[in-house]
Every structure is written in structure tokens, then in C-alpha cells.
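Aim 2 progress update. The chain analyzed this quarter is reproduced below.
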Amino acid sequence: MKFIKKLLKWLIGIVVALVIAAYIFDYDYILKGVRVVYFTGHSTAFIDDYPYFENDTIKKGPQTDAWPLHKNYNAVTATDELTAINDKYGTIAYLIIKNDSIFYEQYAEGYSKDSKTNSFSMAKSITSALLGKAIMEGYIKNLDQPISDFYPQFKDTKTTVGDLSSMSSGLDWVESYTSPFSITARANYDDDLAETILNQKVVKTPGKEFEYLSGSTQLLGMVIKEATGKQLADYLSESFWQPLGAENDALWQLDDDENKLAKAFCCISSNARDFARFGKLYKDHGKWNGKQLLDSTFVAKSTQSRFKGQPYGYGFWVSDYNNKHTFAMIGILGQYVITIPEDNVIIIRLGHHRSPEKVNFFPSDFYVYIDEAYAMMKK
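Predicted C-alpha cells:
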């Protein structure tokens, strides 16, 4: 018994020492990560994490715009391949929108059309849309405006807002999702995100090559906030959420309640139907119900590769799968809004996991969701 008591005291002492060390050396964000992830029974980030963070509300407007249902709505059943991959990776929402009407819609595990889940990096596409809006409204001159106009810390660099949006910033950022000591982990759990980002240096020539860095989009969000003088959630609400007729309020995670800096690189919590509105907006060249919400030239540039042979435009992933031009919003756990303008098709998938294997830059399950949607539309 004495041995057990001594062991417990020793263990408690070690834990206390580690906690104190975390605060002394500015690694206390790891404690929040442990509390949010492991203490909730998870081993990594998860789609229902928004209650564990501070959030800003993206407000819907007084007039909502419900998606019409296709004349053959849910008349077909999921293919065996789709059912198998949905089960394997924990799909909780899968929609096929054909000719701007919902052709097929399925939810699982108690989730519904109104359920909020984390967008993860699909938020990068939405942040880029806000850049386009800020340019359209004159808050930002153009894609070539230097970020040093907004943050003098970068006065000795040539990085532009367009470089941030197209993932060619040259920032000294390591995109790691496994190490608790990585800057990506710090950005997700730290309570002073601006300090983390503004300590970044530009170490490569910007605007020359694609390198996916979450810090690029976070800095872009900060530039947009600085340029407009508005919280990102408010600017998103007035610029898109309300004009697009979103049916539900959404949430945008913040670093904490004091700084109120939105995590522009991730973490908008909404539902499949409302996320899909951005696919339709970009498919229709920035127009919604006859109103030009985004400049069509900006939309066209956003959904084409900036760098030859690379899969990214300005905030959107791009592909020519099956010889059809395709662009997509993508989140790390298999959050997809896939738009194929040629066929007037939008495919939305939300879920717990995605394939770890990649084919031509994209997770292999990405292609399965497309193939099975087309197989179902042919039935």
C-alpha cells in the first residue's frame, strides 16, 4: 500500500511538473489539445469538435433559399461500392445535386440535413471567396497587392494576397498533422493565433510554386479582417451566407474569447446543403439568383490551376478527372464539395475519415464518390 501511495505521488508530481513546463515554455496549447481530443475518447481531430472551442456565429438571413428536390429525388439506391465506402470511412452525409436540384440525399448515425459538422479545410475555399469579395468591394486592390500593406512585418517580402490564396506564400511553415509540437497543432489549439502567424517568416520566393500551407490561408484571413475592419464571420454572413439563402446559422471557430480571431484555415461548422451553395455559386460564375456576388473573372481564375501541373487554383482544388474539369472544396477527414460544371453536378460528402492513399494529389475515395454518383444517375 505504501508503495502504491508513493507511486501515485510520484506520478502526480510528474504530471504537475509537465503542466508547469508546458506553461513556462509556451506549449500549454498541447494541454487543450489533449483535453479536446483524448479526453473526449478520440485520437485525432473529429467532426463534432466545435462545442469545445469558442465560436463566432455566421448568421443566416431572414429569407432562406431551400434546395429544390429533383423529380427523381431518392428514387435510386446507393450502389454497393458507395455503401461499402460509406461504411468503411464513416460517411454521415452524401448528396448528389443535379441541375441545381437534390437528386440523392442520405444521412447516417443520426445526422440530418441541419446537423453541424466541422468543414476543416473546406474553410480555405470560403476564405478565398471572401478575398474575392473584398477585392470586388474595394477593400483590397487586387490579387497582386502585397500583404505588407496590411502587416508591415512582411515589408521585406514580396508575398501578395494572391500568393496566400494560391498556396505559394513562401512561408516557413511545416504542414504536419501528427506531431503535437507542430505549428499546425499550435494554430488549432493555441489561444493567440495572430502571434503564431505573425512570427512566421517568408523563406522561399513567393508566387513561384504550389506548397500547401494552412498558415497561408490563416494569414489571408487576417489580411481580410484588417482590410475590411470586420470579423470574418460577420463578413461571411453579409457577403455570402445571407445572399446565398443558407437555411441555418453556422459557426466559425475562434482562437479564444478574448482575441476572437477566426481560424481561417479551417473549422466552419455547417451542414451539407449549406456548404453545397459555394459549389453552385462558383459553377454559376459567381452569380446567385441573377445577382453577381463574385466577379466572374475571379471565379474562373480560382477554379483553374495557377501553376502548370499542380492541383490548386485560388482556394480550390482542381482536377480533370474523366476528362471533365472538376473543382472541389476539401477537408482533411473527407469533407468534399465536388463540382463538375460540364454536367451541372455537385457531389457533397461529409464524414469521419477518408482514404489515406492518394492518387494524383487526391485521396482515392474522392474518385469513388464521383464514380458512384454517376453510376446512380444512370440508373
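Confidence is low (pLDDT under 50) at residues 12-25. Residues 2-24 form the longest helix (23 residues). These observations will guide the mutagenesis experiments scheduled for the next reporting period.
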